[in-house]
Amino acid sequence: MPATPGVERPPLTACGFSHPGRVRDDNEDAFGSFLEERLFVVADGMGGHNAGQVASLMTVDAIETFFRSYHADPRQSWPHGIDKTLSLGANLLRVGIKVANDQVRSAAAADRARARMGSTVVALAVGDAQLTVAHTGDSRAYRIRDDEVKRLTRDHSVLEEMLAVRPDLKGEEVAAFAHRNVVTKSLGSKEEVEPTLYVNTLQRGDRYLLCSDGLWSVVPDERILAIVAANPDIEAACQLLIDAANDAGGPDNITAVLVRVG
């Protein structure tokens, strides 16, 4: 993100880890931690036969490449139209995700073995006084501030839609829901994708967690808070989050990126 003249830029520290989990042999998650661009991305690929891994890696690379190209030449033409009601950071994430969608779809069309590949994505851009989160699918962003954890994203999933209608569903009913892992929005599935955006102010001391469903589906929010709050070393905290998911059975690929402000 470009600096704002006259505004002191809060420093960032970040760490990311990914693990295949205890059940799957392959890891179709990917992540990127780009401190120079103040950009952080987690992607969870889908498609099988290594196609999911291709899609997630392509997603991370496409978003980072778009950010880097903007920094190199801010006056260049954008591959998708911007929304003048949004901040620069929000437009960079929004268009970067659209570019990733274009590339995933193009690669899928060029290879029958990858015809159904796709990826979820959650991305964080940190400015001088505010941050932007953009996502499609069920990869999540959390904020840990003042010993409280807040989820910043709402999953694009069949389960989330059901919970919106039936908020009274119990834990065992949710666990038994046959379509709880079906996402309703992802990169590669449609020609046009519009990510959901979250924009808010940031504070020094904030910690932000981006993660795939392999973490949040088995590690409760309260446990995430306890781990991060008890471990100021974000590398240690990030590893402990991965360990907690594996201790809970590790049924899916697990990815966590932690970012600390200040």
Task: Based on the model shown, name its key terms.
26% strand; 5-stranded antiparallel β-sheet; alpha+beta; 262 residues; 7 helices; 33% helix; single chain
Explain the overall architecture.
The chain is α+β, with helices and mostly antiparallel strands and 262 residues long. The protein contains 7 helices and 10 strands. The chain has helices at residues 51-72, 88-110, 158-165, 171-176, 213-216, 221-230, 234-247; strands at 12-19, 29-34, 39-46, 118-126, 130-136, 140-145, 148-151, 196-201, 207-211, 254-261. Strand 6 (140-145) and strand 7 (148-151) form a beta hairpin. The longest helix has 23 residues, at 88-110. It is globular and about 50 Å long.
Low-confidence stretches: none
Distance between the termini: 16 Å
Q: Whole-number radius of gyration?
A: 18 Å
Beta strands, count = 10
What is the overall pLDDT average? 92
The gist of it:
33% of the residues lie in helices and 26% in strands. It has 262 residues and is of the alpha+beta class. The strands form 2 sheets. The chain has a 5-stranded antiparallel sheet. Strands 2-3-4-5-8 form a 5-stranded antiparallel sheet, covered by helices on one side.
Q: Could you outline the blueprint of secondary structure elements for this entry?
A:
Layout: E1 12-19, E2 29-34, E3 39-46, H1 51-72, H2 88-110, E4 118-126, E5 130-136, E6 140-145, E7 148-151, H3 158-165, H4 171-176, E8 196-201, E9 207-211, H5 213-216, H6 221-230, H7 234-247, E10 254-261
Antiparallel strand pairs: 1-10, 2-3, 3-4, 4-5, 5-8, 6-7, 6-9, 9-10
Helix pairs in contact: 1-2, 6-7
